[in-house]
Known about the structure:
Elements: H1 3-17, E1 20-21, H2 22-29, H3 33-45, E2 50-52, E3 55-57, H4 66-69, H5 74-84, E4 93-96, H6 100-107, E5 115-119, H7 122-127, E6 134-138, E7 142-144, E8 149-151, H8 153-159, E9 164-169, E10 173-175, E11 179-182, H9 185-196, E12 198-205, E13 216-219, E14 226-229, H10 235-243, E15 247-248
Parallel strand pairs: 4-5, 4-9, 5-6, 9-12, 12-14, 14-15
Antiparallel strand pairs: 1-3, 2-3, 7-8, 10-11, 11-13
Helix pairs in contact: 2-3, 5-6
Amino acid sequence: MLASQRKQQILQILAxxxxxxxxxxxxxxxxxEDSIRRDLRELAAEGLLQRVHGGALPISDxxxxxxxRKYVQxxxxxxxxxxxxxxxxxxxxxxxxxxxxxxxLVKQLPANLSFTAVTHSPxxxxxxxDFPQVEVILVGGVLFRHSVVTMGAxxxxxxxxxxxxxxxxxxxxxxxxxxxxxxxxxxxxxxRALAGRAAETVVMxxxxxxxxxxAFAIGELNMASTLVVEHDLTGDLRAACQKHGMTLI
Length: 249
């Protein structure tokens, strides 16, 4: 079998099983694990999978720059946002992460809903200008251009003075083995910090984020109390969410 054919089969197995193990692939193809690891390295370099210890996971499509992500899974994000907006009750203090799904959430807000929104996303803050009943706290810091959010010591110091009721956390991947992941190390650190300052963490997940992973771990699935999705979960991901006591909407 040609290497290109083997790699294609690996991708097919990955799409079907949502993970591959180097040892199992070695036995399947009658090759050494070194040869399989080389295949996985090359596929990872092409952006076709995410390597993890012992194998690989499907790579998330949600790691593109913000402007590109506006047009990815837009209908799925709208459906998820409509479900999630009911979680925001009058008087709450709510952390709003950056990202296109959160932007859809803002668009679904009732015009007369009164709450306090805390965000490190200038894009989200500007979108909230049209909601006069919402008090908006924009947390400053160093601008991370890829996601258009602030980061750094000043940002972290500011959120450490806030106790939020809810945190709508943006992720790029949700996988039963890898947990919640994102494409950038500093973003993962910021998300953990925000989750640590909120009574409840809510994750809104469009279809492209399910059963996929990115390079940097935010945390295990038990760090979120609620997962909002377009369609009901199945298989290992549903079982993992239930195991961790997560509410599925």
